[in-house]
Design a protein that fits this description.
heterodimer, A: about 350 residues, six-stranded mixed beta sheet, five-stranded antiparallel beta sheet, 10 helices, B: about 280 residues, mainly alpha, globular
Amino acid sequence: MSILLTDISKNFGSFSALEHVNLEVPEGELVALLGPSGCGKTTLLRIIAGLEHADKGRVLISGEDKTAQSVSQRGIGFVFQHYALFRHMTVFENVAFGLRVKPRRDRPNNNVITKKVHALLELVQLDFLHDRYPDQLSGGQRQRIALARALAVEPSVLLLDEPFGALDASVRKDLRQWLRNLHHDLNVTSIFVTHDQEEAMEVASQVVVLNHGRIEQQGSPSDIYDHPANAFVSRFIGQTNIFDLDEHDADWLQTAGILNPRTEGKIAHVRPHDILVEKSNSGYAASATVKDWQHLGALIRLELVKNDSNGSTAPVFAEMPNDQFKQLKLHRGDKVDLRIRQAHWFH
Amino acid sequence: MSKNSIMPGFRPALGFTLIYLSLVVLIPLSTLVFESFKLNWEDYVQIITNRRVLSSFRVSFSTALVAALIASFFGFIVAWVLVRYSFYGKRFFHALIDFPFALPTAVAGIVLATIFQPSGFLGKLLIDMFGVQVAFKPLGIVMALIFISIPFVVRTVEPVLLEFESAMEEAGASLGATRWQVFIKIIFPNVFPALLTGFALAFARGVGEYGSVIFIAGNIPYVSEIAPLLIVTKLEQFDIQGATAIALTMLIVSFVLLLLINLLQFWVRKRSGQL
């Protein structure tokens, strides 16, 4: 089901959590609400769920105005950051809860409930744990049970609040992939909140970047990465080198192959992989000194210092494949030439 | 506890605990048991099965049970309101809860007797409006015991309600549960073990309560005479063995009842995955 938010505003006392947010989520998408902590992303999710009510604006789910409805009427599935499993119930009863609390005329009989719960537990591959209590499960297992529980009521929309936030790195990686596949199979419109840009880019089909209660940009992961709408998005997504023309970086940038068309802005954002590094052999290219490097797996991140008499001393980061780095045979203190392939300009 | 535990002082701490328990609990209670051994079995049975003694047991245990049930119900509501809502004067009410703990029980008894006696402020009102006489009846004892035992319930339930993860309620609501279903199926089961503890404390206190009860009870034999009063009466008549016989019986019955409540609690916790 599609979700449409129009002109949502929400204040907590004098703190404005959301300001005039408009958002459209087409049916079947897996959308990430991405932003730094305190940007209002969780509040927005809770407003969609009905756990929080907006001061202004409307919430429409598949065209139906749900603004005034409470969470129990909206037919959404919500997965909480710390799972919020019912600790006094077994895994089975947790998943069955949503079916058991239905009004008597809609409530399936016990056989149907049993069958459905086991099917859901098999979907999350945890049927063998059906008689355990939540306290006896690992974090990743609890997360999947919470998801099964939310899916039991066949929600029109699935909302997940920092679904991987409390898990360790390797479990998180597996679950991301798993959530993607699950979404592919079920095709239920889903929104998840995260502060981890890598997670958003990896899992979501659409990313919504929020900051200070406003939407900065909405688009596919590649859109957001390749065409950041503003300096905040560019800084927040991936790593960026920032050069300020007013701080005497202009000449240095020019020798690195980037002209400064001041009409587009005076601050250049350059991705580390858009900087080509060569061993120094001439005097006229933008030169830098190798300070240090880090292994990022397939990539090497070089930390460089510009050889620039009047420029800033902020480090410049460049990334290159491991093989290429080995061929260059760089040492700390080596002089290198830099060539910048492209930059994004902001005011 | 292993020898290499990081926490030092296992031996002195255990030693202290044992000495403390012996001096304060074990020795006095065993003295009671030994003292009653001076009676032979026939005498003991005769004292215990005396009609007046039996009815005092009935009064003591039944009023304590009813009072503990009522105190649990209202204590739960009080704890709920104090935890869930913020209102003007909340801190004042919070302090008020502990009042029965601090008040000399005789003072409470005299005050309750004064207002609930047939000519008293509330007593007159209840008789005029509902024809119910509170004082000098088991109902009066129940009243006094509720007053005494409510803080036990409030103070045991309160921390559990405070700690309760509100996300569980939100999860329940998001799955379509009504507020009532959320309360019955999610909140109450999580608070129930604590409520049971509060009930046990209230009951135990009620069985042994003396000071606050004797004034409002009227102490009419076979009607509103409590077992502790009978013990005191026997002591005043220097019938020490009669007193110990009643005391021992109360001790055993209370012990068995508390054991049963503990077993029930164990079962509830186990069934709800809290063990």
